[in-house]
Amino acid sequence: MRIALAQLNPVVGDFEGNAKQILDAVRSAEEQAAELVLTPELSLWGYPPRDQLLEPSRIQQQEAMLQWLVNQLSSSITLLVGAALPAADNRSPRLLNGVVLVNRLGWRPIAHKQLLPSYDVFDERRYFRPGDGPCLLTLPDGKRLGLTICEDLWVDDGLQRERLAGPDPIDQLMPEQPDLVINLAASPFDAAKPALRQQLAAAAARRLNCPLIYLNQVGGNDELVFDGASFVVGADGVVQLELPVCEDHLVVWDSDQPAPARVQPMDPLERLFRALVLGVRDYAQKCGFKKALLGLSGGIDSALVAVIATAALGKEAVATLLMPSPWSSAGSIDDALALAERLGLQANTVPIAGLMEGYDNALTAPLGEVPQGVTAENLQSRIRGTLLMAVANQQGQLLLTTGNKSELAVGYCTLYGDMNGGLAVIGDLYKTSVFALCDWLDSQAAQGCRQSLGLPKQGELVGEAIRRKPPSAELRPNQKDSDSLPDYDALDALLKGLIQERHSGEALVAAGHDPALVERVERLLKRAEFKRRQAAPLLKVSPQAFGSGWRLPIAAA
Known about the structure:
single chain; 557 residues; alpha/beta; six-stranded mixed beta sheet; elongated
């Protein structure tokens, strides 16, 4: 059987546009003599649709587009589409996350998702009720296809950290002896997921003694980045086919001629970089922006954001603004200008010394003195934030913030200043990860990736001067991050324990961390929650990011 895997990049809520993408995939599959076309979870909606699912008119739009697809099909090809299906009664939730079979004779539901994730960024029980299993489709030629949807595959206690309570859809399929199992997914990227998905699929294929197709959505939708990376494993669990990472793609797999593919593993840092590039590109395009702006300081964070933005949007669409103060070092200004030249970016310079003096004069009377200390430092950041917002407003640009996760975690950032913007590109990257990614970008190993994304292939991008410079906000003379924060290696180790692993302070002390440092970092993390609530959306690339999957109170003990 020839099966087309359509790794699609939908726009959430764009039924017409998504249906046309699906039809284009069908046309391409027909040219390659495919009999069955697969599309990802909720492919007609785009994932996650969130509260769009609560609007009855959208269910009607979905049904109209399903019928439109029926009318467009002119051959004997069969199509599986991810859809939201109304339940038979009026109880809440009123929908099921399902799969619809479409052909020229009509459309009908054939499978419902049984395990509904309601953790981290997922909230499916708000909208869906669990389906019943097993889900089996018998084709006219007698082949039996087991159907599962995303989380339904995540049922191996030995492989995954936590497993949802509920049925085991893979176990349910065992008595049915399917010839093939299909998993239609919308699984967001994080660094650990690509390998884990293949391990789960391989375990399920061996349990059922049949091949398994894993088809994942691709593209950025708000904070989430879906990396695609779909694949087929044989009954022995060996990968036979793998689709590209972070690209929409269609490929036809022949079940009668399976041949193990020589899959070249991708460097985890390249996967991460490509995910960030895709996230910026799709966020800009799907929100209607053609251009982006960022503040360039000569530091490593803004340098990395500049590289990502250039790869995502092209050098002609990215502008930078340098806003030196009296405390900005000549080296930082030179480094920022050199970076802009290497990337081919427009760079405008607006010194802020005069603006700082104006604020000092205006505030001396109400304060009884010239602004001092943190107040004076924050004023610099807010002046820069105001300038960036003004330029972005005037020129219709998406303003990219350049702060990292370590800073956001401990509040080493300024509300209405450096936090201004529409997207926090590296807000889920710890400072140590920023250094690692920049070192990789400037290495020989990144040359192929750089060339494929339109970046200069030869020479440094970030530059050694930026990569080796001690981090500094340069808001006062001779300032270093280490004046206010612990060493980033020590800080990030604690933050990962507190944020990602949810360890208590006591557990971290018992693991050997300094008690005073643990107490200090815990306090900073808690006190900064009010800032994170007002931060720009960030691209989630870790198992636990700040944003919709981080739900701690501000006012709490």
